[in-house]
Design a protein that fits this description.
The protein is α+β, with helices and mostly antiparallel strands and 410 residues long. The protein has a domain of 218 residues: Ribosomal Protein S5, domain 2. The protein is 42% helix and 20% strand. The chain is built from twelve helices and twelve strands. Strands 1, 2, 3, 4, 5, 6, 7 and 12 form an eight-stranded mixed sheet that branches. Strands 9-10-8-11 form a four-stranded antiparallel sheet. A hairpin with a 6-residue loop joins strand 3 and strand 4. The two termini are 15 Å apart.
């Protein structure tokens, strides 16, 4: 069985030795599991959120980027209505019959996620069909870099290739992933995770246009400016955080309703300030202030990137992180306020950055438990990794880069 050519691998990964070995193993496992002599190969990256924390679900703006960790798959259509997916490292095969989606229970899990995507794809006018796939991922699970969205975008790319002749757009992919998470996982997700994984590179997103988000690729590299992106997994919280995550969009919408609109993107900060006393939920007000100020910061960062102003970019990342901590309040869960892995790791990181007088850090992604993002000077990356690993463990610190290519058939 042939694997992707060195030329195609170089385009996606910037190298072809390590990636070729990953796909060789993938191809062997696919053939062994499903017996196909031929396969098509696919890749979908994880994502990092640079700025725009918790704004997409209220029609806000985000700058995000795909990262050089991805989910890869070998797949082939099987001329049936049944999807079979095996994930490396998991014994249980995921099986979904497209003809029997009503029988899939709407609970958290990959089977429900896959069923929801097939239902969503059909509702949005696309064709679906049975296929066999073997997938492998190095996207960090439960670490705020969207391992679930990476999987969703991989599946969308497979469905697009086999059944829709490439007619699906990145926005279509994101709508399908959002539908599945909203309906089958009962998770009030926006579309940022999916769009960032699908598009690739650093991208400016504007979600004010509902189901058709606008996006513009940005030309920027932290590495070329002397900084490395480092993701630190601070430790998984013990509480069920679904209510905490959903509370943010719901409280923002609660404030928006008092202001006479459905989403905060339909109004402005001045209107909020004029009606604060009509909103009994103080936290909803604070989260709404974060939304408006975060949108302003996103616009300022896009301008700073255009001006090649790294100092402004770092300042805005820092301001965004402070706002998430103080106003958005997604750095620890109120269900167990004594467990504060994110705030503790931020505090420890700030001590290091203050000592070297350079770099920034902030909560990353959904928050409450899990992950922070750091931008560390290249000369200090190893020192920071060694420093923070003493507190979180070597396996929880991930220096990485922005990847230029999104979800793709290789």
């Amino acid at each position: 069985m042939n694997i992707p050519s060195s030329e195609r691998l170089e385009k996606v990964y910037g190298e072809s030795t390590k990636s070729a070995e990953r796909f060789r193993v993938l191809a062997e496992n696919f053939k062994k599991k499903y017996g196909h002599d031929e396969a098509e190969f696919f890749s979908a990256p994880g994502r990092t959120e640079i700025i725009g924390n918790h704004t997409d679900h209220n029609g806000g703006k985000v700058i995000a980027g795909s990262i050089d960790l991805d989910t890869i798959g070998a797949a082939q259509a099987n001329n049936s209505s049944v999807i079979h997916i095996t994930s490396e490292g998991y014994d249980k095969e995921i099986v979904v019959d497209i003809a029997k989606l009503d029988s899939v229970e709407k609970v958290s899990g990959t089977e429900a996620l896959l069923a929801g995507m097939m239902e969503g794809a059909q509702k949005f006018g696309f064709k679906v069909g049975g296929f066999d796939a073997y997938v492998s991922t190095n996207v960090i699970a439960a670490a705020g870099v969207s391992s679930s969205a990476s999987f969703e975008m991989l599946v969308c790319t497979i469905v697009n290739h086999f059944f829709n002749n490439g007619a699906m757009s990145c926005a279509d992919y994101a709508k399908i992933g959002k539908y599945s998470e909203n309906v089958y996982w009962n998770k009030a997700s926006g579309m940022m995770d999916q769009m960032a994984c699908a598009v690739g590179g650093p991208v400016l997103f504007d979600f004010s246009n509902g189901s058709q988000p606008e996006y513009r690729p940005l030309s920027f590299s932290f590495e070329k400016k002397g900084y490395r992106l480092v993701i630190v997994n601070t430790g998984k919280g013990h509480a069920d955080l679904s209510e905490e995550y959903s509370g943010i969009p719901n409280e923002m919408k609660e404030a928006a309703k008092v202001l006479g609109v459905e989403l905060l993107c339909e109004t402005n900060l001045d209107n909020l300030l004029a009606h604060i006393n009509e909103i009994p939920n103080d936290r909803a007000v604070l989260r709404a202030i974060h939304f408006f100020e975060e949108n302003r910061r996103v616009d300022e960062m896009a301008a700073a990137i255009g001006a090649d102003d790294i100092d402004a970019v770092l300042r805005l990342v820092n301001e965004s992180g402070t706002s998430s901590w103080e106003l958005l309040q997604n750095c620890y869960s109120l269900q167990d306020c004594k467990e504060q892995k994110i705030t503790l790791t931020l505090a420890l990181t700030e001590l290091f950055l203050r000592r070297i007088k350079d770099g920034v850090c902030r909560v990353h992604g959904g928050g409450f438990a899990g992950v922070i993002m750091c931008l560390v000077p290249l000369a200090e990356v190893d020192n920071y990794v060694n420093y923070i690993a003493k507190y979180v463990g070597d396996s929880n610190v991930y220096p990485m880069n922005i990847r230029a290519v999104g979800a793709v058939r290789i």
